Task: structure prediction
Amino acid sequence: MRRYFGRKLLVYGLTFFVAVTINWMVPRFMPGDPVSSMVARTGASNPAAAETMRVYYTGLFGLDQPIWQQYFNFWATLFQGDFGISIWAFPTPVSEIILGAVPYTLALMIPAILLSWVVGNWFGAYAARRKALDNAVLPIGYILTAMPYMWLAVLLAWGLGVVAGLFPVAGGYSFSTRPNWSWDFFLDLLHHWTLPFASLFLAALGGWAIGMRNMIIYELESDYSNYLSALGAPQRLIRRYAFRNAVLPQITGLALQLGVLVAGALVTEIVFSYPGLGSLILKAIQNQDFFLLQGTFLFIVLGVLIANFIIDIVYVVVDPRTRAGMAGAQA
Amino acid sequence: MTALQEVPAQDAQAPAVVRREALHFALRNGKLVTGLAIVLFLLLLGLLGPVLIGGTPNAYGTRPMQPPSGEHWFGTTTFGQDVFTQFVHGLRTTFAVGALGGGIAAVIGMLVGFVAGYRGGLIDEALNMFTNIVLVIPTLAVLLIINAYLGVRSVGAQALFIGLTSWPWAARAIRAQTFSLRTRDFVDLARLSGANTWKIITREIAPNMSSYLFMTFILLFGGSILIASSLDFIGLGPTEGISLGLMLQNANQWSAMQLGLWWWFIPPGAGITAVVGALYVANVGLDEVFNPKLRET
Result:
């Protein structure tokens, strides 16, 4: 088990290293000059002012130093928790802006992912090998997985928000209120949270249902199922064993799907102007705020790595073979 | 229907009985036929539509915010752009991104998967580690950074970067398949007869999992389309031209929802869903054709 976690941690450590390196490399080696584009954006027509700004930005990026030193400086500032200053919300530090947005994203993602996983697995397991149900679950599942997250979000916002007027379609809370610790504000938050949550939940649901259905069919064809039914075991019992075995690949699948789910959450937030990381990214791109964009990138990578590690721990708890050091999950 | 029958017809010319059997089941598989029909219909619409309709997709018109009518099949945007013209041009871009991005990802996935699975040992360890690293990094986040710094973005560059980041799961799957094939007798025989690694992989291993490879490509194709549409929607789509994702982005940016212009945001999303969904369904059909265990009755 120590080897299993050791390998996992090595992969995650290397991944973080690669992510930071990408973050450092992209602005420096991409075609185009971010400094001149930033100077151009401020619209300084006076050449002397433009030159001053050019020197300022070059110093800020540390672009006047040798490459290897730039790289070490980048790591050094990172470990001090310094992600730079946002240009869009000057002069707020990037880390402060991101920390303000993270709770909204997490409040949206964690319930949506967990619930869609549980409900999807349940539906899939129930529908497998039950003709009538299967014929309903399968097409709906395929349509839901093929739908782009933002389109489902737009459809829900339009249908339930604009046309029916049941839910607000923009913001994390009403524009007339300020965040405070009152019961009314909490209800307001919940009201704004419902549609983005429902959208994420539904979009992810189909994939889990289909995956579980296929796994259950596979398990029901395996030797132990045939043996059990030959012994005359009740169908319920066989299905329960099949479910236990089928859940393991679904847990691994959850880890593999994290990137897609994060991407889905980001675009869903943009549709609903929900004040999480997705909306931050949109603002960063619209305002060419590269510090904010890069800071958000690192936060997302860090979040995905932590989530992966949690899933690894859950896997060890659920699958006894990994604990016994037998062949279970592969690193 | 003629176009439909052409694809399996190529297989039928091969003398192998297995192929003819596959064709027999392919033509009788409802999922495969329906899925392929939808994909081919949309592909033709994307290929021929822009030629037949003419006009530039982003040209401003004189009649803004028109609902669908005989003149404008899908209505017009706030700027008077014809939504149907944008739709057919967007379909073309969508297929291009899917084919290019999915193709690049499939090639990388196959290379890494075959080499890691066949060679094993240290090379496998190294490639496996590399695959796991790329697998864990959230793809869209990397694409955001890269595309944000690209001043001018083209469809080709978008597809290239999608292909470069979305191959890991395919590599893992192909590696596992290769692993199970490499100890078979015919592979040993080829090795004894002195064939080199490249030849064994292309002549012995790849043909024996060709159906699997094809299905992997289909899934990568659909995945590329979905990733590209997300990128477009965030505002990092191609700087020139139009795609289905860009249409959704425009609709969202100019509050089509609040203005009630449903014909602006329904067609592009429905187009993406139809292409990707039909591909997935056709894939399930293909699986049933190639794998007798899964066939119904």
User: Anything to note?
Assistant: Residues 219 and 280 of chain B are 7 Å apart (CA to CA). The domain at 85-295 of chain B is CATH 1.10.3720.10 (MetI-like fold). Chain B has one domain: 85-295.
